[in-house]
TrEMBL record:
The active site is at residue 158. Gene3D superfamilies: 3.30.1380.10. Belongs to the peptidase M15D family. The gene is ddpX. GO terms for molecular function: D-Ala-D-Ala dipeptidase activity; metallopeptidase activity; zinc ion binding. The record marks 66 as: Transition state stabilizer. GO terms for biological process: cell wall organization; proteolysis. Pfam families: Peptidase_M15 (PF01427). InterPro entries: A_A_dipeptidase, Zn_M74/Hedgehog-like. Catalyzes hydrolysis of the D-alanyl-D-alanine dipeptide. This is D-alanyl-D-alanine dipeptidase. Zn(2+) binds at residues 94, 101, 161.
Length: 186
């Protein structure tokens, strides 16, 4: 059900924010940096990679499958349903392997300007924000076009978040589905 996403196998760059302290919690949530997606999402990722390549861009993945345990850690750090799904709600596409957080990088490996950083809990992060530069708006539209053409849905309040359509049809998964798991061990 979950497929491991690797740099060599998928032509992406992995920079999994929740395996580092550079995230909204200020500490690593994952004990190891592993990237996984549901098989359907993995196929759409491959399509997005193929669409970005002729334009001179690559995808940099910031998060993908997120165990339910990690969702709780994020919710405790930022209990704002505009930016973090409440683990008690039915909307947890990351916990189903059906969502991905990413950005675009150019041929030199530099991230395109998106106007805010990843996980910036502000209305400036919304796809339609006019409060960011014209260049950032263009870059967001470019990412949106690539991901939409590859078959992904988007979340309007996070320029970095894409998901399968109707993700609730897939089960919510905990860290126990992976061997070894992603979460830090006590």
């Amino acid at each position: 059900m979950l497929v491991e996403i690797t740099e060599a196998g998928h032509g992406v760059v992995l920079a999994l924010a929740y395996a580092t302290a550079d995230n909204i919690t200020g500490r690593p949530i994952y004990g190891r940096a592993g990237c996984y997606l549901h098989t359907e999402a993995e196929a759409k990722l491959r399509r997005a990679v193929a669409l970005a390549a002729p334009l001179g861009y690559r995808l940099k993945i910031l998060d993908a499958f997120r165990p339910l345990e990690a969702q709780w850690a994020l919710w405790h750090a930022l209990p704002d349903p505009d930016f973090v799904s409440d683990p008690r709600s039915g909307a947890r596409p990351h916990c189903r392997g059906a969502a991905i957080d990413l950005t675009l990088i150019d041929g030199s490996g530099a991230e395109l300007d998106m106007g805010t950083g990843f996980d910036a809990a502000t209305p400036l992060s919304w796809h339609g924000s006019l409060g960011v530069s014209v260049e950032a708006q263009r870059n967001r539209h470019l990412l949106l076009g690539i991901m939409s053409a590859a078959g992904w849905d988007f979340y309007e309040k996070e320029w970095w978040h894409y998901q399968l359509f109707q993700p609730r049809r897939l089960p919510i998964l905990s860290d126990s589905v992976l061997r070894p798991g992603l979460m830090k061990q006590p």
